[in-house]
Amino acid sequence: MSLEHEINHWGINPEDPIDAELAALESSLDNLLARDPAYWRTAEKKERLKRLEIIQAKQAALKLRILAVAGDIAEETGAKDASGWMWTELLVDKKIGRAEVKLAAGVARYELVAAGLAEGVVSQEKARVIVKALEAIEADPEASRENLILAEKLLVEYATEMTATKLEIIGKRILVEVDPERFEAAEAKALQREEERAQRRTFFTSRANGDGTVDIHARVSYAVGLRLRTILDSLAQPRKLSAEDRGRKAPYDRLLGQAFARVIETYDVDQLPRHGGHATTVFITMNVEDLRKDLGTAALGFDGEHITAAEARRMACNADLIPVVLGTGSEILDFGRTTRLAHPVQHRALRLRDKCCQAEDCDAPAAWTEAHHLKPWSQGGRTDLANMVLLCSSDHRRIHDPNYGYERLPDGRIRFSRRV
């Protein structure tokens, strides 16, 4: 018997209400996508984004409910679970598909989490965080069923008040909130074990790429990583804002890399261990003529790696390294002395005097700057206030770049010009 007359304008059998509702949902979304939000008022955009967030959570709830009972799909296709079918038919990566199937099974076990998703007050990512925390409680031999029930209730409530990241932090110590007398000591011991594992897993490797760069890979404890990121953000964020104020875009990962280099270049070597009575130092070896002219190279350390003479001169302004200057017969003419560096008191005086970077087109605050010798130290320039100005790291690099010349303006500012 033909059913053609029973097919409606959505192309489905009206006797199947679920398919009809899905078709209506698809049709509504198509209608919404045909509208241009550029013409919506700000209040309308905010309200509709809120509603869409709720709709997205409800959609996730429906999808996870289906995946939780999709064992027959795996059985039919011979896959381990429904993620195999999702990979071949929906082109969903197996890792993502398996994570969704696992989450579906977890949500199905926790009624309050499932209800929060269905109501749209718990997002899929927050549900994942809560399920992970609850599974950890179930695996804890010290936790009771009552602890689990109360933890689920608290976490679902917290999900309406905080982001998934903050919820994850709370989830790791939710048992302490549930029963502090029983679990505070256990948490302290667990944290101690975690920190000890972090120490054992700490490492640092570096590999030269042969193109003037070095790749660095490291693993440190969370506390050390957080401190490092805080330091780098404190250096990179102001420069990002300064660049944006001048209409320039600066990739933040690049700014973080530059901030990391700044930390290394300005580290106080007096804090390093002493070897044979001497502080740890880096030697730069170059010919006297290369030191004084725009071109030329310098050897960094004792392994034969080279940098430009311009970079060596820039580093010599604010790094505790020792230039070894060679004459025509490779005889040592001079060992640089760290007294060429501006004293901290001089830095403070320069900041009071200059207020900011002295490049004509730059207003980087003094806190981000480095002291530069106007008459280079390599040419007998003295480390005194009259011979120094403050430059941000970008302009400090530019003043040592042989592709640029500069002049000192009457007000003390530095004007750069590209050399032809």
UniProtKB/TrEMBL annotation:
Residues 345-397 form the HNH nuclease domain. CDD domains: HNHc. SMART domains: HNHc. Transmembrane segments: none annotated. It comes from the Bacteria. GO terms for molecular function: endonuclease activity; nucleic acid binding; zinc ion binding. Pfam families: DUF222 (PF02720), HNH (PF01844). Belongs to the Rv1128c/1148c/1588c/1702c/1945/3466 family. This is HNH nuclease domain-containing protein. It comes from Nocardioides panzhihuensis. The lineage of its organism: Bacteria, Bacillati, Actinomycetota, Actinomycetes, Propionibacteriales.
